[in-house]
Each structure stands twice: as C-alpha cells, then as structure tokens.
Amino acid sequence: MTEESSTAIPAKPLAFRHPMRSLSGRLAGVGSIKIVTIGSSTTAGEGGIVPYPQRLENALRERYPGRNFDVLNRGVGGEEAPDEVKRMQRDVIDDRPSVVIWQVGTNAAWKGQDLAAVAKSIADGLQMLSQLGADVILMDVQYVPALLVPEKRQAAERIVDLIATAAERATFPVNVFQRYDLMRRWHDTECISFDRIVDSGDGDRLHHSDWSARRMAEALADTMVIAAARTT
Length: 232
What we know:
Elements: H1 3-7, H2 21-28, E1 33-39, H3 41-44, H4 52-63, E2 69-75, H5 81-86, H6 88-91, E3 99-103, H7 106-110, H8 115-129, E4 135-139, H9 145-148, H10 150-169, E5 174-177, H11 179-188, H12 194-197, H13 210-229
C-alpha cells in the first residue's frame, strides 16, 4: 500500500492484482451477466440490513447502463469455509457464473476456529472454482470492534494474511477485496465512528450498518469496473 492510498480521503479500496477478464469478455457481448456470491452473514444479510449482493447488483447496473446483472446471493449466516466448500458445486459452480465473490474468514476469527483448517478449505474451494474460468474474488474480514478486542485481533489479522496467501498460491488469477484494510481506513483515516460503521442493533458489534454495507458495495463495484477495463 502506498502512503497516498493509505491517507487519501475518502478512503478507496486497493486495486485488484489481476484484470477481470471474464467480466470484461461478458461486457463486450450481450445478455445478462451472472455473479454468484457465497459467504456468511455479510453475504446473506443480518439484522434487517440490505446485504451487499443486492446493493452490488444495483451499483453495477448504474455503472453499465443498459446491461443486466444478476447477482445471486448464496450466503448462509454463521458458516465458514469448510461448510461453504461442501456446497460450492451446487450453489456456485453449477450456476456457471462469470464472477464469483467468496466472503470468508470472519467466523474463523470471531469463533476461534482452527485457522489452518479454514485456510486449507479456502485453498480447496479455489481449486474447485478453477474449473469455471470465472473471475474469482475473495473478500476478507471486516474491521469492527468484535474482531479488535485483544483475544480476537491476532486471529483476524492472521486470517487476513492466510486469505491473501491462498489467493497468491492459487493455480489461476484470484483477486482479494481487502475489506479489513478499507474499513480500517474509514475508521482511522476518515475518523468514521464505529457507531456509524456497525449496525446499531448488533450487540456483538460485528455486522455492517446500512451505511457501511452500502459504501462497501459501492467500493467493490468501482474496483470491479477498474479491473474489467484493464488489459494487463
């Protein structure tokens, strides 16, 4: 991360490492563009907050007028990578999407799960997804009070590193949407209060507010647009 990217206001997500060639190819053609999202409560929705997949669909339609995006929500609250890998074929691969977004890692850190086992499941899931020829995005964990208490923060930062490593070691290009870093900069650089970032009805202080869910979806859409326009 450059000094400029870490201090600029408003905070912008870090660019994807790889172009999104599948999305770019679909945009060059006609017809709807299918995106499948898989993950836990951030994907499924929690506490009456409109989840990011629905917001992402609307954001992409705004950025590409006249094009139809179908963003399928395959989130299940409370799950982690080992559970999601078990349904990856049925819930993701069988739909033959052009883009897959896998939100992962939060429950591993928050619930004290075996991080090595979770990392292995992420690698296994990516190997399954390699057959699709789709653009794959891993979304790492949120920067919120529930994961910043001393007994959780080390695990949260460790799983962020493990997600990045899984993407780097994959046998095909895998991008990471670095949510932890982006939300940290909302709080630390923009001085946005956690009372605004976190759902006010969430006693665990873990889940997105309406404000942060909307802003995250907008940031993800912008990052995808940039990556789809790249050739190298």
